[in-house]
Design brief:
- This protein is of the alpha/beta class.
- The protein has two domains: about 1-115 and about 285-315, Medium-chain alcohol dehydrogenases, catalytic domain (Quinone Oxidoreductase, Chain A, domain 1); about 120-260, 3-Layer(aba) Sandwich (Rossmann fold), CATH 3.40.50.
- The chain is about 35% helix and about 25% strand.
- The chain is built from twelve helices and 15 strands.
- The radius of gyration is 19 Å and the shape is globular.
- Keywords: Oxidoreductase.
Length: about 325
């Protein structure tokens, strides 16, 4: 079978090759699936660079989110067993974490539901305890993580403010249901959040960017607000100043969703059921910005790293 493999750490375009390798053989508690679609995520880039918190041994096949077909024809979604491995024609998944695909959901959408929407749901509901009517600020709103958070925030009854760069991406945020959209390329999002909320500030901030965006979020957070730290696509890990948290009375919450598979595995199934219900009600639907053949993985990851994509980018073997 064909599978992309990272042979040394560096930029994916330099260190990934499309190899011919044996099909994987399932071990105890594992299922072999034919990969129908594999979604891209920023951690795919970080893993290739060797800078992610999880460092799979070399060589490894990237890809942490997929939709696959079992030998009996049933479709399942989830992550490959034991780490990455979705950018291939076949993959292994843990039977306990192979979730049925909701009726009416495309292969590409199913590949995009697991990691991004599970993270958003746990982040907003479990970590931040988002309440109806609260102000939710979603950064990088046009990307896969952001579009999911906008939809989940609206489904929770929040008033959603999204940030994005440029007219095309701000339009995507509007189409996803954001009540207010800030173009950070031409507007100061701190001042605009204060203006939009009448000085109240954001009750919850969903931040996959870090760096200057995190710093700015601390300046427009509401009393008893919660900043959910999702990632650092800006490349800079910010520092939370304890004295500032004390003076403004807000919280900074870490969100490493992957830990729930070990610490609270039952929650994964509960969240999957909730997401399937939201999809059935028409309240969420993964936005697929682009679908590309498997052999274009390098091009797709380069575009994702350069922030040249909207929604989710999906590879199809």
């Amino acid at each position: 079978m064909r599978a992309w493999r990272v042979h040394s750490h560096g930029d994916p375009v330099d260190v990934m090759t499309l190899d011919e390798v044996p099909e994987p053989e399932p071990g105890p508690g594992q299922l072999k699936v034919e990969v129908l679609a594999a979604a891209l995520n920023f951690p795919d880039i970080l893993m290739a660079q060797g800078t992610y918190q999880e460092k799979p041994p070399l060589p490894f096949t990237p890809g942490i989110e997929l939709c696959g077909k079992l030998p009996d024809g049933r479709r399942v979604l989830g992550s490959p067993a034991g780490g990455p491995g979705a950018f291939a024609e076949y993959a292994l998944v843990d039977e306990a974490f192979a979730w049925p695909v909701p009726d009416g959901m495309s292969h590409a959408q199913a590949a995009s539901l697991y990691l991004t929407y599970q993270t958003g749901y746990v982040g907003l509901h479990r970590r931040a305890a988002l309440q109806p009517g609260e102000w939710l600020l979603v950064h990088a709103g046009a990307g896969g993580v952001g579009t999911a958070a906008i939809q989940l925030g609206k489904a929770a009854g929040a008033q959603v403010i999204a940030t994005a760069g440029g007219a095309a991406k701000t339009q995507v945020c509007t189409e996803m249901g954001a009540d207010h959209v800030i173009d950070y390329s031409s507007e100061d999002f701190v001042a605009r959040v204060k203006e939009i909320t009448g000085g109240h500030g954001a009750d919850v901030v969903y931040d996959p960017v870090g760096g200057d965006v995190f710093d700015g979020s601390t300046k427009c957070i509401a009393f008893e607000g919660r900043i959910v730290v999702v990632g650092f696509t800006s490349g800079r890990i910010p520092a939370a100043k304890a004295n500032h948290l004390l003076v403004k009375n807000y919280s900074v919450l870490g969100l490493h969703w992957g830990l729930y598979r070990r610490k609270d595995p039952a929650r994964i199934g509960q969240v999957h059921e909730a997401l399937c219900q939201l999809f059935a009600e028409g309240k969420i639907a993964p936005l697929i910005g682009q679908t590309l053949p498997l052999d274009q993985a390098q091009t797709a990851l380069a575009a994702l790293g350069d922030r040249g994509t909207v929604g989710k980018v999906v590879l199809v073997p």
